[in-house]
């Protein structure tokens, strides 16, 4: 570990800077983190660069550290809270008079990764947009009410978790149905945003910079009938998502036979396993919804790494997948998706 | 045809005599008579020099001036002649001759043209209906109106709204441009012929050709092409006009059909704009009333960290029966008072009662800061207000600062879930208080208690929407106090806002998105002592999470 002198590195180009900042944020040192960023701004670094080249990558590192089990969930949340405050400090120092239209920025229902979206909101504000930032986990009806009341030129919707794609789709369709075009972003829409278009989004942006360019030059897009893309999913999706509770309950009942170590689980561990199974079910449903195995295999690959970091053997994950597969014999698409997942889990 | 025997204009049945047939057909006058009897125009030509050999009656009527011996000049298969449209087909007859067969298809094409126009009109009105009714936002509806008008009716469109306080708002779009908005003084409206009348609800002024000078410079952007024709149409609204639609074209004037279509479109646009205006008025009214019912922005008194969270059940107005509030210290009542409660029922009716309770407590706080007394007085006030079948539960806390950054919180409950306290070592305990609910019996029993919070410790007030949230893997289980305690213990070391956010997230995941009941939380936290920054000392400070990080979480929970 490098120990810095009293001033610390001063430039974004300094390779030590991001480590230094990560440590401040990870230690819950709000004052130090805000000061580090304030110094950068004072040195003339553009606030966009501070947000996109420092705060955002740091947040990415925080997620990785949690996934690798190097940081506890409490530390991850605390660090995120510090990042939020640093961001607020950047925003407070950079007022901009709105010159463009009005835009609503929100996370889809069930999506809690607010920080990247907040960075987007601030970046758009710096570009002259009047931004309404609705934050994390915005239920569809609240979003649509907001649109009726404010009449924005665009909605920017973020989805980081692929399992939320069906809800993202409902939100996209609802926004477009009231005549407001939608730009989407976030990992949840897949590599290169490949699922965004299928869900009817007017645009997809790889990052905040991309979104700013897209909105500045090619907006609004030509209106199309929102109901052309309003219906996805088939009876297999309907079956899996409607019977989520039954699938998980049955899997939990059969868990002990399939995976003997589960016999020693306490209530908390039992709850966590049930939640894992519901997540697997959600991702399975999402894969069926958008019709792409990748939704599922990506999630299984990630889960495997997370479990691995916590010393949970892959047989536990495989057992879970089999427990669901045993209940879905009559559903060829779901079975096929689970099989690709099993390959990835093994 | 060649098998029909023809003789003297009469037809006899039976097998033809081959030589008789040939002889008859060679008779030129019979041939001409047969061709003249045809309704199709036929022009017989010689192949070697393209001269006309014969023009039948129908051809002569259709294209006068075609004479045998003249050079035929037909080339294309569609021929414009004297305002008529002819369709022609050239066919080879024998090695030396060919013929043009001409048909007048003017009426047919006119019908097809009309049909296409009608179809386009229907498609336009269908799209207009769909897009105009989609939004309740007036600005959005206005934009849609000018977009549709420019796509289907004119080169430029301006909507001018009725005069309000001597000014009119407008929005316009020029083909190929972007929408612009602005405001006009009432006095300049008369510069556009017919605009004042349209805003007054009079019938549309017939379209007319205009000198470019008759269009005031402010109507269209300076770089727009000169206006050829202008049409001003009222946008009918709810008993009074919703505005006026001005359509401008560079070239041709508006036909009667164009005007009729513009009028139908204006009727739809006007209805949508009026509905949006009505919605806006209602929202404005509701927002004023709502402002007092929504949870307040929390003050941040010195040495006390307060974090609130309110999540309304899925209704549009975001108001419900849960509430919290904070009353800052006054000279008479040096304690900071926090209250969190739940009124029986849901929606606006419940919200109105929460407003009354909060106001009563606010007044009460000016003279009193003992939670137990406040609850008793509030109970009598509610009972005496005469409104039956409404009761409430709540927790009131009086916070004062103690030595070494500690907080002393005196808590009293009126039948409300007991607050939980998160200690620095991660244990969670319930505040030792009891009490009956408010607004039911004349005398309530309240057992208050005082708890102390060391720096970094949190006292969480919450509504039962949190613990009674139904969901979980099976969809039917309540989240429950045990899970809440567990989750709160997991928040050890987090800043207050991160802890509250985490609880929100966990319960939202539990119910799988569909929160059915209001959920309110109010966390009171003694701020953690400020550590020395490692930047100042040059010595790496031990992170409060260092132990956590080493232990890690071994339960393999995927996010």
Automatic annotation (TrEMBL), chain A:
<keyword id="KW-0479">Metal-binding</keyword>
<dbReference type="Pfam" id="PF02310">
    <property type="entry name" value="B12-binding"/>
</dbReference>
<dbReference type="InterPro" id="IPR036594">
    <property type="entry name" value="Meth_synthase_dom"/>
</dbReference>
<dbReference type="InterPro" id="IPR036724">
    <property type="entry name" value="Cobalamin-bd_sf"/>
</dbReference>
<feature type="domain" description="B12-binding">
    <location>
        <begin position="100"/>
        <end position="226"/>
    </location>
</feature>
<dbReference type="InterPro" id="IPR006158">
    <property type="entry name" value="Cobalamin-bd"/>
</dbReference>
<dbReference type="Pfam" id="PF02607">
    <property type="entry name" value="B12-binding_2"/>
</dbReference>
<dbReference type="InterPro" id="IPR003759">
    <property type="entry name" value="Cbl-bd_cap"/>
</dbReference>
<dbReference type="InterPro" id="IPR050554">
    <property type="entry name" value="Met_Synthase/Corrinoid"/>
</dbReference>
<keyword id="KW-0170">Cobalt</keyword>
<protein>
    <submittedName>
        <fullName>Cobalamin-binding protein</fullName>
    </submittedName>
</protein>
TrEMBL record, chain B:
<dbReference type="InterPro" id="IPR036457">
    <property type="entry name" value="PPM-type-like_dom_sf"/>
</dbReference>
<dbReference type="InterPro" id="IPR052016">
    <property type="entry name" value="Bact_Sigma-Reg"/>
</dbReference>
<dbReference type="InterPro" id="IPR029016">
    <property type="entry name" value="GAF-like_dom_sf"/>
</dbReference>
<keyword id="KW-0378">Hydrolase</keyword>
<feature type="domain" description="PPM-type phosphatase">
    <location>
        <begin position="304"/>
        <end position="526"/>
    </location>
</feature>
<dbReference type="InterPro" id="IPR001932">
    <property type="entry name" value="PPM-type_phosphatase-like_dom"/>
</dbReference>
<dbReference type="Pfam" id="PF07228">
    <property type="entry name" value="SpoIIE"/>
</dbReference>
<protein>
    <recommendedName>
        <fullName>PPM-type phosphatase domain-containing protein</fullName>
    </recommendedName>
</protein>
